[in-house]
Amino acid sequence: MNIKLLIGFILLAGSLSSCKKWLEVQPESEISAPVLFSTENGFMEALNGIYIKSTSHDLYGKELTFGTTEALAQNFSIGTDGQDYRQTSLYNYTNGKFIERKDKIWSGLYSAIVNCNLILSNIDERKNVFTGSNYELIKGETLALRAYLHFDLLRLFAPSYLKNPTAPGIPFAKKYSKEVTPMSSVTEVMGLLIQDLEQAKTLMTNDPIRSAGYKVNYPLVTDTTKNTEESSPILFLQNRRHHLNYYAVCGTLARVYLYKNDKVNALKNAKEVIDSDKFPWTAQSDFIAFDEAKKDRILYKELLFGWYIPGSAKDIKENWFKSGTRSFFLLEDDARLIYEAGTVGGEDLRFKQWLTLMADVSSRWYDIVKYNRNSLSTEANANLHYLMAPAIRLSEMYYIAAECSYATDPVQSLKYFNEVRAARGFQNQLTVPSEDGLINELLKEARKEWLAEGQMFYMYKRLNKAIAAPTGSAIPPSDKIFVLPLPNDEIVYGGR
Predict the structure, then answer these.
(1) How far is CA 460 from CA 60, 189, 441, 465, in A?
(2) Residue 495: which pLDDT band, with cuts at 50, 70 and 90?
(3) 376: pLDDT strictly greater than 90
(4) Among 239, 182, 183, 189, which residue's Cα sits nearest to residue 216?
(5) Three-state secondary-structure class, residue 386
(6) CA–CA separation, 369 vs 249, rounded Å?
(7) Of 91, 274, 311, 428, which has the fewest Cβ atoms less than 10 A away?
């Protein structure tokens, strides 16, 4: 990576808060670094600044959640192309709009990584400013965030581990430096990811979310015997699921190990999340509630980690998911095909709650209402939970456990798989004749679960499977599709 192009520095732009008063990202100031990192609070401010940077529209506030990655996965119908993703869905990687978005993803993720390295380059020598376990927590969380961001870069811009483990991967930026970071192979990057994440997991042993007293629930639940997510007197320690907490690190490790086809360690980390009993399945009464103020569309309590995206609320409502075929939507036949609505999917609560059938004189389509908010009010307490972009779900841990255990215990594997289905309203228990059969069912199931969440493209790529188009056709797997081109500036200035 050409670090010289990307260095940015984070300054405080207001009082720190657990969910609303976040930080602005300002131009670099070498002079301010010693000041910012002279206090524990300064490190907390800097880390929160990276989260807000990562929720820009160029990153997880749009493109990596329901923008570019969803178009690549064929998860939307393309009507009048009001969002300008048709060429992306056709894998025209020379298209100007695609290049613009793709290059901003690359530079944005690396800019956030640079700021992770800035924290890590200062934290050890300032260890004396921390209280309690906050040094270990902040260092661990920063290492985990650096790995999380690198992993998405790898999954976008390099061949999969299954397809070509020795191929050039991405530059793995391990230090805060203005020097050009050398390219690492896919295998080398995987090793560095695991190293960061395992160190983070060890450091974060005392994460508050692991305590028996930490109760996951909706922010409007004020009974502290049922919800303690906002009870800490230290704002940084509230809403741990808005940060890469201990269990989110386990979830990321499960993802990374599975990408490496290390099913033993993937299963181990997925089971640690499952066996913690920390994350309850969403009550069906909350999922199907008629009153928008009491409805949980996003399955909030099941999130191990989510990006807090209040800055995307206006565009979600008025542009990206506005009713009609100029936004992100699904034609009626496409939606029914994805959710198998005519057969086994007729009882799927996701189909019923995330899609709303609409029509005009010439067509019928489904609006995607997964991110809808209470239209009567913009107040925080007007909704059951905050506006989040899901990053790691409990259901994914069950999918990983099912995939990793089938070869040794197919009965238990199907128990994992069917538990998710039961939580989504299915009464029947699915059976499969083989491991290949399970993979096919997992692909269909994940596509239903992760609609407009940005994860499906990575699953097709990891497994080197054909991408299912909304029309029912299949797009053959190919690195011409799965590997996005590096930015031109990276090739020129980075010498790639």
Answers:
(1) 20, 20, 13, 5
(2) low
(3) no
(4) 239
(5) coil
(6) 29
(7) 428
**211 — alpha (psi -120 to 50), left (phi > 0) or beta?**
beta
What single DSSP character describes residue 305? E
Distance separating alpha carbons of residues 47 and 268, to the nearest angstrom: 28
What CA–CA distance (Å, rounded) separates 365 from 318? 18
Q: How far from the centroid of its chain's Cα atoms is residue 243's Cα?
A: 12
Chain mean position to CA 101: 18
Using an 8 Å Cβ cutoff, are 235 and 17 in contact?
Answer: yes
φ, ψ at 367 (rounded to 5°): -70, 140
368 phi and psi angles, rounded to 5 deg: -90, 115
Q: What's the sign of the alpha-carbon dihedral 463, 466, 467, 471? A: negative
Q: Is the predicted pLDDT of residue 422 greater than 60, yes or no?
A: yes
**Amino acid 492: pLDDT:** 67
Residue 166 has pLDDT above 80, yes or no: yes
Q: What is the pTM of this model?
A: 0.94
Q: Looking at 395-455, which runs of residues are DSSP E strands?
A: none
How far is it, in rounded angstroms, from Cα 279 to Cα 157? Answer: 33
User: CB neighbours (10 Å) of residue 436?
Assistant: 10
Please list the residues that pair with 359 across neighbouring strands.
Answer: 364
Q: What value does the CA radius of gyration of the chain take, rounded to a whole number of Å?
A: 22
Closest CA to 179 of 30, 9, 3, 29: 3
**Residue 378, pLDDT score:** 75
Q: Which two tokens stand for residue 88?
A: 């992306």
Residues found in the chain: 496
Per DSSP, the three-state class of 354 is: helix
* Distance in angstroms (rounded) separating the CA atoms of residues 172 and 184: 7
What pLDDT does 16 receive?
37
Strands annotated E in 265-318: 303-308
In the block, which residue shows the tokens 């040094």? 135
* pLDDT, tens digit, 9 for 90 and up, residues 456-469: 999 999 999 999 99
Q: Are 167 and 210 in contact (CB under 8 A)?
A: no
Q: pLDDT tens digits, residue range 311-357?
A: 999 999 999 999 999 999 999 999 999 999 999 888 999 999 999 99
The model's pLDDT over 187-223, given as tens digits with 9 standing for 90+, comes to: 999 999 999 999 999 999 999 999 999 999 999 898 9
Give the separation between CA 331 and CA 296, rounded to whole angstroms: 24
The percent of residues above 70 in pLDDT, for the chain, comes to: 93
Question: Which run of H or of E encompasses 168?
Answer: strand 168-171
Cβ neighbours of residue 98 under 8 Å, at least 6 residues apart?
68, 87, 88, 92
Alpha-carbon span 439 to 460, nearest angstrom: 11
Q: Which residues pair with 367 in a beta bridge?
A: 329, 356
| Residue type, position 174, single letter | K
